[in-house]
Write a structure and sequence with these properties.
The chain is mostly helical and 201 residues long. The protein has 11 helices and no strands. One of its GO terms (molecular function) is DNA binding.
C-alpha cells in the first residue's frame, strides 16, 4: 500500500470517528505512523486531503459497477451497496452542507454525483417499465422526479444517523421500497413478495 493510500485511509477513519473539523494533521500523522512532514509532503493542507478523498470516493463509486439491467432483488442489492459506500465515507455524507460551504469546489462534485445517480435510477425504472414490473407512466418526467427523490433521500439520510446504526439503514431501505412499491405492477408485486417474503396488498 502506498504512503498516500495509508494517509487517506487513516484520514477517512479519523474523520468518520471524530469529525473532520476536529482532526488535525498531527492526528493523522500519528494514526498513520508517519511524521507530520511526511503527511504535508503529500498533502500540504487538510483541504488538500479533503479533495483527495473526494476524488477517491468518486473512483470507489465508479468501481461499484452499478448495472441498470437488474431485477427487484438486484436493485435491492444495489441500494445496500450504496449504503455501505456511504458508511465508508460517513463524515462526508454526514456533513455535505458544511463541507460545500467550507470548500466550494465540493458543490460541483456533489451535483455531478447526484445527476449520475439520478440518471442511473431513471434507467432502472425505465427497464422495470419495459419488463412490466413498473406501471407505465404517460409522463417520463415522473420517472425523473421519482429517481431524484430516491437519490436525495439516500444522500441526506445518513445525516440523521450515527456510524454503525444498522437499524437506521434497514429503515431507509424500507422507506425506499415503500415509495417504489406503489409503482409496481401486479407482476412486480409478485416478484417483490417472493423476494422479501411479504404479503402486502
Amino acid at each position: 500500500m502506498t504512503t498516500k493510500k495509508v494517509i487517506l485511509d487513516k484520514a477517512i477513519e479519523l474523520f468518520n470517528k471524530n469529525g473532520y473539523a476536529t482532526v488535525s494533521m498531527r492526528d493523522i500523522a500519528d494514526a498513520a505512523n508517519k511524521s507530520v512532514g511526511n503527511i504535508t509532503y503529500h498533502y500540504k493542507k487538510k483541504s488538500d486531503l479533503i479533495f483527495a478523498i473526494v476524488e477517491l470516493q468518486y473512483e470507489d463509486l465508479q468501481s461499484l459497477d452499478l448495472q441498470t439491467e437488474v431485477d427487484i432483488e438486484g436493485l435491492n442489492e444495489q441500494l445496500k451497496m450504496m449504503l455501505d459506500f456511504q458508511k465508508k465515507y460517513y463524515f462526508y455524507f454526514g456533513n455535505m452542507i458544511e463541507l460545500r460551504k467550507t470548500y466550494h469546489e465540493i458543490l460541483e462534485f456533489q451535483l455531478k454525483i447526484r445527476e449520475e445517480l439520478t440518471l442511473h435510477f431513471i434507467r432502472i425504472i425505465e427497464n422495470f417499465e419495459k419488463k412490466e414490473i413498473f406501471r407505465a407512466s404517460p409522463n417520463k418526467e415522473l420517472h425523473a422526479c421519482l429517481a431524484k427523490g430516491i437519490v436525495l433521500l439516500m444522500m441526506s439520510w445518513i445525516q440523521q444517523t450515527s456510524l454503525g446504526e444498522t437499524e437506521q439503514h434497514e429503515e431507509l431501505l424500507n422507506i425506499v421500497w415503500g415509495i417504489l412499491y406503489f409503482n409496481l405492477t401486479e407482476k412486480g408485486i409478485g416478484f417483490y413478495n417472493q423476494i422479501f417474503n411479504k404479503n402486502l396488498h
